[in-house]
Amino acid sequence: MKCPLCGKSNDCAVAAGRDPDSCWCMTATMSSSALASIPPEAQGKICICAQCASRDRSEG
C-alpha cells in the first residue's frame, strides 16, 4: 500500500499478510503533526510510511 502523505510504499506488514507485531510501526514513535496530516478519508484505513511518521510536517 502507498502512504497517503507521500505516495511511497508504507511497508505495512498487515497489508502484506504478515504478523502485525512484525510491522515497523509497532515500535515507532509517530509525529503528532504527521498523524494530523493524514487525510480524513485515509484515517484508520491506510498507514503512513516510516519516513512521514517521523517527519515534523511543519518543516515542509
Question: How large a portion of the residues is in β-strands, by DSSP E?
Answer: under 5%
Quaternary organization:
single chain
Shape type: globular
**How many distinct beta strands?**
0
Distance between the termini: 23 Å
- The structural class is mainly alpha
Number of H/I helices? 2
Q: Give the SSE string.
A: HH
> How large is the radius of gyration?
11 Å
The major beta sheet can be summarized as:
none
Q: In the residues, how many domains can be counted?
A: 1
Helix content: 10-25%
Mean pLDDT: 89
Unreliable runs = none
Question: What would you say this structure looks like, in words?
Answer:
- This protein has one domain.
- It has helices at residues 32-36, 50-54.
- The protein is mostly helical and 60 residues long.
- The radius of gyration is 11 Å and the shape is globular.
- It has 2 helices and no strands.
Present the secondary structure layout.
Layout: H1 32-36, H2 50-54
Key phrases:
about 60 residues; mainly alpha
Please provide a brief summary of the model:
The protein is 17% helix and 0% strand.
